[in-house]
Write a structure and sequence with these properties.
This protein is of the alpha+beta class and 262 residues long. It has one domain: 3-Layer(aba) Sandwich (Vanillyl-alcohol Oxidase, Chain A, domain 3). Strands 4-1-3-2-6-7-5 form a 7-stranded antiparallel beta sheet. It is globular, with a radius of gyration of 19 Å. The chain starts with 12 loop residues before the first strand and ends in a 15-residue tail after the last helix.
Length: 262
């Protein structure tokens, strides 16, 4: 029998922001995002993204299916400070559409679930960045402006705050010095698009590689990333193999980013 115990934090209403910009302003948005987030309080969490314009009510139809740059996040501090928190993002560049205001946290977390029906094909890649460098931004501008489907999501998640206050060997996750985790999550419907979409993801990942750490976030990886498992867990990999040998010596749980028993 296996059990997990979690220490939870109460979260109810948050002041959410979903701000969509034309992709031609992505350079300005990315530079602003990098600089603004570096000095933002921990109550603000926001990621930078590249998509095709989603069919949502607050985005004019003329932008549906077109390349866009998006900032998505939430303010969990004093609700009265929410509008002022998001105003700099609204002022950073021309906005194609936005939704800013109080929202239940689960609603924000599931805002785009309807775009992902069962049966989609998928191919993902992941990395860690010690900084959102000019070179990394340029790679995102190049490939992010060519997102191949409305279901494809390229998200650049910040890693900071409490994550950096935990030791490298205190948990299985060792990447406590990373600042950003980009994920290239390509999804499509037509099997005929498989070859070109996989090539786009691999090209994107290769363009980011010179600016990336050797590891990547393991939940964002695909089947052909199995050779990276040891790098992903870094100095904790040996200890994890010992635990795997004790509790799963026959490697029953193997259809994953597999840690093999010793």
């Amino acid at each position: 029998m296996t059990s997990l115990e979690f220490r939870l934090h109460p979260v109810d209403m948050v002041h959410a922001g979903i701000i969509i910009y034309p992709v031609e302003h992505a350079q300005t948005v990315a530079n602003f995002y990098r600089e603004h987030l570096a000095g933002a309080p921990e109550e603000l969490g926001a990621f930078l993204a590249f998509h095709q314009g989603p069919p949502v009510p607050f985005l004019p139809e003329e932008w549906h299916g077109k390349p866009v740059c998006i900032v998505v996040g939430m303010w969990t501090g004093d609700p009265a400070e929410g509008p002022a928190c998001w105003q700099p993002f609204l002022d950073a560049a021309p906005v194609a559409g936005s939704m800013v205001g109080p929202m239940p946290y689960p609603a924000l977390n599931s805002a785009f679930d309807g775009m992902y029906p069962k049966g989609l094909l998928a191919y993902w890649k992941a990395a860690f960045l010690s900084e959102l460098s000019d070179g990394a931004i340029n790679a995102h501008l190049d490939f992010g402006s060519r997102v191949p489907s409305v279901q494809t999501a390229v998200h650049i998640y910040p890693i900071d705050g409490a994550v950096h206050r935990v030791g490298v060997t205190d948990t299985a996750f060792p990447n406590r010095n990373a600042r950003f985790s980009p994920v290239i999550a390509c999804h499509w419907e037509d099997p005929g698009d498989t070859e070109k979409n996989i090539a786009w993801v691999r090209g994107y990942a290769a363009a980011l590689q010179p600016y990336s750490e050797t590891a990547g976030y393991i939940n964002f990886m695909d089947g052909d990333d199995l050779p990276r498992v040891a790098e992903n867990y870094g100095p904790n990999y040996g200890r994890l193999r010992e635990i795997k040998s004790k509790y799963d010596p026959d490697n029953l749980f193997r259809v994953n980013q597999n840690i093999k028993p010793q």
